[in-house]
Amino acid sequence: MAKNDWIEVIEIFNTKSITYINDFLSSNDKFCPNSNHINIFDKNHNAFSSKLLNKPKPGNWIPLYKREDLSDYLVQNDLMPIRCGQGEFFFFKGNIFYNLDEVEFLKINLEYLTQIDTFIPLTLKDFHKNENAYLNKALAIGIINDFIDSDNITVFQQQLNYRRLLYGQFGKIKTNFELEFKTTFGIKKINKGFQFEIDLVLENEDEIIIFEAKQGLKSRKTFTLLQLYYPLIYLNKITNNKKKIRTIFIDIISHATKSEVYKLVEFNFIDLEFDNYKVIKSCQYY
Q1: pLDDT per position as a tens digit, 186-200
Q2: Do 32 and 24 contact (CB within 8 A), yes or no?
Q3: Domain-terminating residue out of 94, 117, 141
Q4: Boundary (domain end) residue, out of 37, 72, 94
Q5: Which residues form the domain of 59?
Q6: pTM for this entry
Q7: CB count, 10 Å around CB of 152?
């Protein structure tokens, strides 16, 4: 369980220096390590790593998907680990989660949508019910076109390098260049070799639309905005900011005996700053 791993990580820091974390928390700095709080495991490196902490299997604990993945200490102090390289992270003082309970959804009955295709992924009927299959269904029955208010959309056309496909068009992406984690307080580097996931990217003549989906038996209370932000800054980089990029989270509530419910929320990260965003639109399709 990731929560126990992060409890252990803080213990490793405190064993190395009992004051290091507290000194950072009491400072005005937003990122750690930084020039005022040098990496205590390797003074020449800009991030902490599973290797430096001598803690294996970083893929099991560094990626964060929900608030429950973090220890109580990290949550209470708004001390957020930000994945920034292969088995690497830095600390950010702030909030990385969005509370979906705060969203007021416009409710739309699926009967009023124009179905685009009769295709329903075979995986939904006979095999594995993954997010990509539900995204394909949402596209086929007209949910996505209705929400983004566009009919002429295609799958993102530009070739994505260094990818490992999971289901359908997208999957895990591994970068061979640096990215910037921008905030209203400054910028922190994301190193080469950074890996993240993309669920689906569509485009039309003027826009690129990123989708991050989560599926379960009940509505999610929170999700991490990083799952939209990483694809945003990556696609902005490889397309040279030629098109407007939209970011949409989809909460899919699936039941064995009745139709799914799709909750869509669109976010706008102003000036590509992680902590400077607003909700543009929110709809619930049932």
Answers
A1: 999 999 988 888 888
A2: yes
A3: 94
A4: 94
A5: 2-94
A6: 0.88
A7: 8
